[in-house]
Amino acid sequence: MRPLNLFLLCSLALHPCILYGQADTIARSKKIRITPLPVIYYSPETRLGFGALVAANFETTKHPDTLTKSSYAQTYFLYTVNRQYDWGTSTRIYMPENKFVFYGKFNYTFFPEYYYGIATEDPLSKKDTIQYNRIGADVRLYKKLKRHYFIGAATRFNRIANVDGGTTGHFVEDKPLGYEGYWLWGFAPAFAIETRDNFVYPRKGFFLEVLYYLYPSWSGESYRLQNFKLDIRKYFPVHWISPIDALAFQFLANVNTGSVPFKDLADIGGSYTMRGYYTGFYRYANLYAFQGEYRTNVWKRLGFTVWLGGALTPEKWYTFFDHSFKFNAGVGLRIMINRKDRLNVRVDQGFGNQGQSGFYLDIAEAY
């Protein structure tokens, strides 16, 4: 879900709804924990908007066991008085004993956004407004090798269409690669290590994922490029304030070579990485980002977090200090809406360089 200046999220009920469905003719019931949420929000780009979000936690086994992780899915639809819309869904499904893991993310959007230039250290001087349609899909399938090690394959599709940057302004002057629209379809081998105790709110364990995408040039509207992604996360349980406190750390690398269109460059900002920056405030070929966060519960369903982070944006993957260090920090409020799965509504306020700040409201932790 994209960051918004004002994003009010009101739960239909603090306790999740419980739905039952019969798996077969035998008298068995499988529990699915559903949390529906109406959405009301406002931003300068969209004015008043509204929609709905539904999150679900469920099991793929007929009987509870300690080997299979809980699966998770989320879908939302947003609509504005400007006739703009954003639909998205994501899921992570663990088959029995985690022998196979499926990850899928799909979205269709039409939203205006600010353009801040490409590979510039003075983004505010390039500020412009653009709008476009986007269709995106990101699918990964993993097979467990042994214990916590997985190997698999991934595919990603990205279509940017109906780009409108006006007839004057920095966007049409810059003419960044893909400014008239483009599409990419790539494939990647994938490797992962997964020891987290919980996908929604991990308190201990380790996660690593490596992807190397190859994007062929399928047509005149697509580009040939390679993209390497490395995601490393480590969690430590602590008991400084409450029994469910945790320290969470993440390192993220996003390295690109070839002809990379502007919306597929490594950008800074958003609800997950480098919170506090408008998405795309900095946009470079390469990104190395780090963040550390302390999470705690203070009273009943209420908790808070604090975090520090930073990023390097080199022109080549090995020239780390080509540009300035991008710093971010922030605080957040947590409202637990599902105690069993430790599912939180996440309210964050982040801060960055050049007076950047961002307010975010989402569901589940950033990482």
Please characterize this protein's 3D structure:
The structure is a single chain. The protein has 367 residues and is an all-beta fold. The protein has a single domain, classed as membrane protein fhac: a member of the omp85/tpsb transporter family (Porin, Beta Barrel). It has 1 helix and 20 strands. It has an 18-stranded antiparallel β-sheet that branches. The chain has a two-stranded antiparallel sheet with strand order 14-15. 34% of the residues are buried.
Distance between the termini: 14 Å
State the fourth-level CATH superfamily: membrane protein fhac: a member of the omp85/tpsb transporter family
Low-confidence stretches: 1-29
Class from secondary-structure proportions: mainly beta
Main β sheet profile: 18 strands, antiparallel
What gross morphology would you assign? Answer: globular
Q: Report the radius of gyration as a whole number of Å.
A: 21 Å
Q: Which CATH architecture would you pick? A: Beta Barrel
Strand content: over 45%
Which secondary structure elements does this structure contain, and how are they paired or packed?
Layout: E1 6-9, E2 17-22, E3 29-43, E4 47-58, E5 71-80, E6 85-94, E7 100-115, E8 128-146, E9 149-164, H1 170-174, E10 182-194, E11 205-215, E12 225-237, E13 246-258, E14 266-268, E15 282-284, E16 286-299, E17 302-312, E18 326-338, E19 343-352, E20 357-363
Antiparallel strand pairs: 1-3, 2-3, 3-4, 4-5, 5-6, 6-7, 7-8, 8-9, 9-10, 10-11, 11-12, 12-13, 13-16, 14-15, 16-17, 17-18, 18-19, 19-20
Organism: Chryseolinea soli
Protein name: Bacterial surface antigen (D15) domain-containing protein
Keywords: Signal
